[in-house]
Amino acid sequence: MSNPILRTRIKFCGITRLSDALEAVRLGVDALGFVFYPPSPRNIEVDQAAEIMRQLPAFVSCVGLFVNSTEAQIDQVLQSTSIDVLQFHGDETAGQCQQLSERFNKPYLKAVRMKPDVDLESVATDYASAAGLLLDTYQQGTPGGTGEAFDWERVPATLSKPVVLAGGLSAGNVTAAIQTVRPYAVDVSGGIEQAKGIKDAAKMAAFVNEVVNA
Fold first, then answer.
1. What own/partner pairs with CB < 8 Å and gap ≥ 24 does 10-13 have?
2. What is the pLDDT of residues 20-48, one digit of tens each?
3. Which candidate in 20, 62, 136, 187 is catalytic?
4. 136 is catalytic
5. Where along the chain do its domains lie?
6. Does the annotation mark 97 as catalytic?
7. Are strands 185-188 and 163-165 parallel, antiparallel or unpaired?
8. Looking at the whole model, is its pTM more than 0.85?
9. Which CATH code for domain 9-213?
């Protein structure tokens, strides 16, 4: 990116409990991710997500994660919740993402699973309408949440879209990740958990501290 990044933003994904959401806010996290994908162990029901969002203060972005969802399924979520950003984590084409973004008047992130042959410059061109690209580890049959990191050196320094770096991040490696990639934001889920969908307050605090110090 040509513009210098003064601060690396932080997104905690896989929120399922109000207490975890409020602790994240207290720590200064910028965005909370809610998974609307039933096969995921971090899936959250729409009414449960809506209740959490109703109790959040202002200036916290809520991101809805969808995997090959239909327009009707996304509409059901957006009718009941205060989702600010759509995150497409499946096989959605650039055209489908743009159409859904325009249909619901919401910006979107496109998750890119870092397969060995992925060309990020080409992906950035294809998804030019995206607010950013979320780069995640590739594991066959798993759309995300692998808990494994990929080779950060594969991310071009001059990529034309903001990078949200995900995949196996934790307090132990996020400083190195930021120094290598210089992402717009980092996205963590498993690295701050005591169990899938259940966050650990100490790990959350340690992660935020490392990002701030990086």
1. 10/185, 10/186, 10/188, 10/207, 10/208, 10/211, 11/63, 11/164, 11/185, 11/186, 11/187, 11/188, 12/188, 12/189, 12/192, 12/199, 12/204, 13/42, 13/63, 13/65, 13/166, 13/187, 13/188, 13/189
2. 999 999 999 999 999 999 999 999 999 99
3. 136
4. yes
5. 9-213
6. no
7. parallel
8. yes
9. 3.20.20.70
